[in-house]
Amino acid sequence: MDFPPDVVLVVDRSGSLQPFSKGLLASSVMAAGVTPASAHHIAAEVAATLSRGAVTRITADALAASTSTVIAALEGEEVARRYDDWRRVTRSPKPIIILLGGASGTGKSTIATTLAARLAITRVIPTDAVREVMRGFVPETLVPELHRSSFEPPPDDPEAGFETIYAAFRRQCQAVSAGITRVVKRMVSEREDTIIEGVHVLPGLDVAAIASTRAAIVVPILLTVRDTAVHHAHFMHRLETHHGREPGRYLDRLGTIRAIDERLRAEARAHGVPTVDATFIDDALQQIIALVLERARRDLVEAP
């Protein structure tokens, strides 16, 4: 393929040529935990550096080294180190599997899709979709919990207390976990970085068999919202961002959802699963990226 003479060509490890793209570079820089605005500023500065040096062709590794130098100058050495670490992770044969759990309304879907964009992950699988598939072939008479919301009482006991509702919620999660495990195994076999998000990702979800094979970097995280008013606002926000999705039934059961949130935090502590407050989305994203990189660093250090 012929490229315009003023285009900088990047030579990857296979020897293939690709035109330099500030947009793609900015996307890779966001994996270091910087904001999109900062990432685009860094990419623009790298482009300017190449232009000043009259560079017309550069290897991918040399471009990464130049980018790391610019990041260190603009954002600091720690951010540059995160960028270098992320590049090492993306060259690892092990896929990253992020398990993002939390009660209803804690921002899982929003954070999962935004996180995927920042980490260039193309697979985001909601556990509600897994449950919906399972509902198609598991009859309600066999697992009734699959066929109702995670925070609602049984139809035959509308005044059920929290412990009864939570026990049914756990049974639903345990049923869905079989589907989640199959999805994770498939993504690991295909070496696809994946985010699995949903209320069914309980702290302590049994991915030990997958993690023990050392075939993937598995990162479990619990999202929570500490403030009731913020949690309420999350549901109201769906009117604006989810095609006018009616929040009424969630708000009617907000007390139960808040109790589930609190119980999940306790379970996360018991299982050593990190908890991230999703009150401020950008802060939450930075914390999650830091957790992913920390786990990935450990894996790289422990690798034989």
Instruction: Give the mean pLDDT.
Output: 86
The CATH superfamily of the largest domain is identified as P-loop containing nucleotide triphosphate hydrolases
Structural class: alpha/beta
CATH architecture term of the largest domain? 3-Layer(aba) Sandwich
Low-confidence stretches are none
Count of runs of 4 or more consecutive helical residues: 12
What count of domains describes the coordinates?
2
Question: Given this structure, which CATH class of the largest domain is correct?
Answer: Alpha Beta
Radius of gyration computed on alpha carbons = 22 Å
Strand line-up of the largest beta sheet: 5-6-4-7-8
Distance between the termini: 41 Å
Topology order in helix (H) and strand (E) letters: EEHHEHHEHEHHEHEHHHEH
Can you tell me the overall shape? Answer: elongated
Total strands: the figure is 8
Give the DSSP E fraction (strand runs of 2 or more residues).
5-15%
Q: What is the fold-level CATH name, i.e. the topology of the largest domain?
A: Rossmann fold
What proportion of the residues is helical, as a percent range? 55-70%
Q: What profile does the largest beta sheet have?
A: 5 strands, parallel
